[in-house]
Amino acid sequence: MLAYRHAFHAGNHADVLKHLVLVQVLRYLGEKDKPYWLIDTHAGAGAYKLQSRHAQRNAEFENGIARLWERDDLPPAVADYVEQVRLHNPGGTLKHYPGSPALALQLLRPQDRLRLWELHPTDLKLLAQHFGTQPHTEVHHGDGFSGLKSQLPPPSRRGAVLIDPPYEMKADYGLVVNTVRDAMKRFAEGVVMVWYPQLPRLESQQLPQRLKGAAPKGWLHVRMTVQRPGVDGFGLVGSGLFVINPPWVLHDTLQGVMPWLTQALAQYDGASYVLEQHAV
Question: Where is this site: Interaction with substrate rRNA (predicted)?
């Protein structure tokens, strides 16, 4: 259960999509003076060295953030995300990739709060070293699925939740749905972002539809497919984000971004995206 390390995948195409959306959601929440919380249920190590042996094993970042690094035609939302990554690479050379906690810490204001959960002991140690002493931030050792219950609703009644487990076990898909349902009961107005891998397995394909039933006040679903399955029929061909209570501007932003981003990250001619929304 604890074999997964996000360091192997840092900065890949799935991170690009996930963090692009995260930046946009936090920008939106930051438009009002009232404080908000961000709760990350599976925070990982929080930041990654792209020259490490883990990141270099498959060098997945080369088909992700690296494809955007030198381009001068980035759409505004993509440029905003890339600029956040550049803040971790002051020399201009792509050497470090910020995970969700690092990106959030850059965007949160003094009145906002960051709550991080991680179960893997090695990643937890790194997470605590990087973020344990940061103001208004708490690092928790444990299962983020169950830990989320103690954080909702935040005192300000404003906030976002990021749920992106490893999905190593089939049970994770059911845990995601149950966690989202419980979160909506505790914090019906909260923004909940669920990342999922696009894999040739039934649980992955069914997850967005199952989440639609847990989002009575509206949802947005975006998925990007960038590569073929491996010769064995498996492999991460893309990923998706399901956002409950999305910012009202998010759909239009992604509508302008996804054609460009899909083409920029495409690894075969059949690359495509899905963008759908149900607004209440």
Answer: 4
Residues 6+ positions from 112 with CB-CB distance below 8 Å: 30, 35, 36, 37, 38, 136
Cα angle 79, 127, 138 (rounded to 5 degrees) comes to 95
Q: 259 with 15: CB under 8 angstroms?
A: no
Question: Can you tell me the distance from the alpha carbon of 261 to that of 263, in angstroms, rounded to the nearest whole number?
Answer: 5
d(Cα 59, Cα 77) in Å, to the nearest integer?
25
Return d(Cα 135, Cα 117) in angstroms, integer: 16
Q: Which two tokens stand for residue 219?
A: 């949802």
Distance CA 226, CA 42 (A): 24
Known binding site: residues? Answer: 19, 42, 100, 118, 143-144, 164
Task: Report helix, strand or coil for 14.
Answer: helix
How buried is residue 30: exposed, middle or buried, by Cβ count under 10 Å (0-12/13-18/19+)?
middle
Q: Are the CB atoms for 139 and 131 separated by under 8 Å?
A: yes
118 is written with which tokens? 């991680």
The residues with which 113 forms a beta bridge, in sequence order, are 37
Per-residue pLDDT at 3 exceeds 60: no
State the pLDDT at residue 4: 56
**Residue stretches of the annotated binding site for S-adenosyl-L-methionine:** 19, 42, 100, 118, 143-144, 164
Please state the rounded mean pLDDT for residues 9-32: 97
Would you name the residues annotated as active-site residues?
A: 164
DSSP string, 49-80: ETTSHHHHHH-GGGGTHHHHHT-S---HHHHH
Q: Please give the sequence-ordered ranges of beta strands (E in DSSP) within the chain, or none if there are none.
A: 37-40, 47-49, 96-98, 113-118, 137-141, 159-163, 191-198, 218-225, 238-244, 272-279
**CB of 143 closer than 8 Å to CB of 2:** no
Per-residue pLDDT tens digits for 139-182 = 999 999 999 999 999 999 999 999 999 998 899 999 999 999 99
